[in-house]
Specification:
Helix content is about 0%, strand content about 70%. It is mostly beta strands. The protein has one domain: Porin (Beta Barrel), CATH 2.40.160.
């Protein structure tokens, strides 16, 4: 974990940066039917989050997407679980664009809570990511997160 301790609004800010590599374990989609290619989907991803100091957390999230021809809005609920029993809960939303066989993601996030060393945490941040295959069971997603964690 990269720790840049800053003081903002009287609270220490810890900047966490990590790369999350996940894959789809389940997915459901619905063709909306109003225009060609408009779908809504619910998917579950699982994988690992890698920190610059060598730390690793398990990661999983639910994804809600509203896409037309592979592009549109998404909302994610990532949960990171650490070996010490701590957990960090996030909510992120943003836009997806589709190019060739890849989907690119850009979004903002909010810290919605945690337990253990993240108890009472709040904060915000950003994410970028790329899905290298279509949204189906087994689709691979690589995401880079920056979290401004306030305790």
């Amino acid at each position: 974990m990269i720790k840049d301790d800053i003081v903002a609004e009287g609270r220490a800010v810890e900047v966490l940066q990590f790369r999350m590599i996940t894959h789809v374990t389940t997915a459901q989609s619905l063709d909306i039917g109003d225009v060609d290619g408009h779908t809504a989907s619910l998917a579950r991803f699982s994988g690992l989050a890698f920190f610059p100091d060598g730390g690793v957390a398990t990661a999983y999230f639910a994804s809600l997407a509203d896409y037309t021809n592979g592009a549109g809005t998404f909302t994610l609920y990532p949960i990171l679980s650490f070996d010490d029993g701590s957990a960090l809960w996030l909510k992120s939303s943003g836009m997806a664009t589709f190019e060739g066989a890849k989907t690119h993601f850009v979004g903002k996030l909010a810290v919605v809570g945690g337990k253990g060393r993240f108890e009472g945490a709040t904060g915000d941040g950003t994410l970028t990511g790329t899905r290298y295959t279509s949204l189906s069971v087994g689709a691979d997603l690589v995401s880079d997160y920056t979290v401004n964690l306030r305790k």
